[in-house]
Specification:
Blueprint (H helix, E strand, L loop, with lengths): L2 H11 L11 H14 L2 H13 L5 H13 L3 H10 L7 H13 L3 H13 L6 H7 L9 H13 L6 H13 L3 H10 L5 H13 L3 H11 L6 H14 L2 H14 L5 H13 L3 H9 L6 H13 L3 H13 L6 H13 L3 H14 L5 H13 L3 H10 L5 H13 L3 H13 L6 H14 L2 H13 L7 H13 L3 H9 L7 H13 L3 H14 L4 H13 L3 H13 L8 E6 L2 E6 L8 H17 L17 H5 L3 H12 L6 E5 L5 H13 L4 E4 L4 E5 L2 E2 L6
Parallel strand pairs: 3-4
Antiparallel strand pairs: 1-2, 1-3, 4-5, 5-6
Helix pairs in contact: 1-3, 2-3, 2-4, 3-4, 4-5, 4-6, 5-6, 6-7, 6-8, 8-10, 10-11, 10-12, 11-12, 12-13, 12-14, 13-14, 14-15, 14-16, 15-16, 16-17, 16-18, 17-18, 18-19, 18-20, 19-20, 20-21, 20-22, 21-22, 22-23, 22-24, 23-24, 24-25, 24-26, 25-26, 26-27, 26-28, 27-28, 28-29, 28-30, 29-30, ...
The structure holds zinc ion (2 copies).
Length: 698
Amino acid sequence: MKLALLIRRSSNQYGVPKLHRFSSVPDIKLHLNKAAKLNNLKHATQIHSQIVTTNQTSLGNINSLLVVYAKCGSIKHAVLLFDTNPRASTSVVTWTTLITQLSHFNKPFQALTSFNLMRTTGIYPNQFTFSAILPACAHPSLLSQGQQIHALLHKHAFHTDTFVATALLHMYAECGSMSFAENVFDQMPHRNLVSWNSMIVGFVKNKMYGRAIGCFREVHSLDPDQVSFSSVLSACAGLVELGFGKQAHGSIVKRGLVGLFYVKNSLVDMYCKCGLFEDATKLFCDGGDRDVVTWNVMIMGCVHSQNFEQACTFFQDMIREGVKPDEASYSSLLHASASIAALAQGTLIHCHVLKTGHMKNACVSSSLVTMYGKCGSLFDAYGVFGETKDFNVVCWTAMITVFHQHGCANEAIELFEEMLKEGIVPEYITFVSVLSACSHTGKVDDGFKYFNSMAEVHKIEPGLEHYACMVDLLGRVGRLEEAWRFIKLMPIEPDSSVWGAFLGACGKHGNVEMGREVAERLFELEPDNPGNYVLLANIYTRHGMLEEADEVRRLMGINGVRKETGCSWIDVKNRSFVFNVNDRSHSRTQEIYEMLKKLKELMKRRGYVAETQFATNSVEGSEEQSLWCHSEKLALAFGLLVLPPGSPVRIKKNLRTCGDCHTVMKFASEIYQREIIVRDINRFHRFINGSCSCRDYW
Ligand SMILES: [Zn+2]
Ligand SMILES: [Zn+2]
């Protein structure tokens, strides 16, 4: 179909009135500028058809129209324009314009294809073409393509051009290859502030904060600008380097840059991340303009310093001031709700998101999935996931993680397979959830299949989390020897997460010898973690080695480790109720303990025997009694008393739940026909009809 015809038809379809005929070239330029400013695609297509019908297809007009189409957000129109104009492919300027726009629109492969096509037609790239194609390769997976361009650059002798070399080092930095970037930087005959800033930004991006600060110190003679300052502040935030951050703040004030959004936002962020939350708030409230990013930084700062309620207050203030929240605001806020497992608040934000039409954003919908998951509502999480239109790997990973956390390991693995079929490339963190799910189901073969595919297929080096999952998997099915060999063969030094998984397995399968050896390593690695001492003591106790168990507890005392006291929360009608071990402070204490007594009797009739090995720190003979004062049991009893029949009981706990409480929850879910969800420090336990989603392994 003729393009002009197509365009005319599409413009008529919108019912746009016909423009008057353009008589001269400046007229067309004027209209093109107007269309670009207004982002008006209809207008642009009209001008296009006029250009065609009045036969004014000069290269200058085509180039301008290309940019206008891109500015109006339609790369398709731009490509179509290029393809239908034979003259377009004769000019390096037009090629460069096309490549620039393809890069902009994140179409790296199309940009590279165009670049190669241009060269085969015998047109030499100039410095602008190189500066256009380099950003297209700015992704770790495109490093080799970037290197090829680098080689070409040398061939055409553009590598000494400051403009091109800066684009080149920026490309390497984005690919995560800072050593290549440094090489380019070192060989540059001339450097300007932009080149220095690119280095600083690159170091920050690659989390090499110390190097970023070093680079900034050198740039000081060149009169750093807002980009230099805001990047170095991010480096200070990353390193929690308050001293240098304050110095930078001083220079910023001296230079009068503090009023710039960009700089102020970085300052607020730096103070938040360095733990000076009050200074950040002061800076934030100290007059001056605030844009949505400033608000987001502040909200994120609250989340970071665990002031979750404050985060919500800021959100409301923001709306009151008439600032429209964006994707980042919603994501941080949902993160806050997830952290405190505040389902009611999270649901409220969901409504906001729906009203403001941010549901389409992948980042927001994945945050929603995570929020519902962490608040214990698998149903709602899946609902959001099902409604998401624009999936990316983060959404898939979020849903896979939620499935796994809720004990639906098979669903997690199925979803992962589906994701692969859709051609989505998994990430590092995706594999953590998938391998955990495999561990959950005890699928050793599947686990190893996915584990091996990480490096072989997806070029992701397995990290400590993945090794810990594999150890957990082998340990769970009782293949302790194999797990031990697996650890010994690890190419990286195993950390406490790997050994911790192994110790858990030794505990579960009652292997005293291995347990002792591993626990000793753990005592060295993390002498302050009470969990390891408790686990080893439990292993001894189970084998009747009471003296050894006491010895471990003594060691715990010598090392000054105190067991954190258990603490559980339960939400009733938007209010959080906290219970400590042995808590008798609640106004309905009497009823709570009576409820527990009744529950115990009902359970005993069904064969419950107290697992007294979990009763630590108690006088002999009163173990059973002390077990029944655990915080999650108190929260459960309260929930059973006050929540309407049939509604689920959601409990959060600051430590791992103990074996006895776990058993009690199982019984209670059957006796009272209630769904009970306990989120402990490690995972979710979802008790339905007498069994738990963790399959009794945690
Ligand atoms: Zn307990
Ligand atoms: Zn469980």
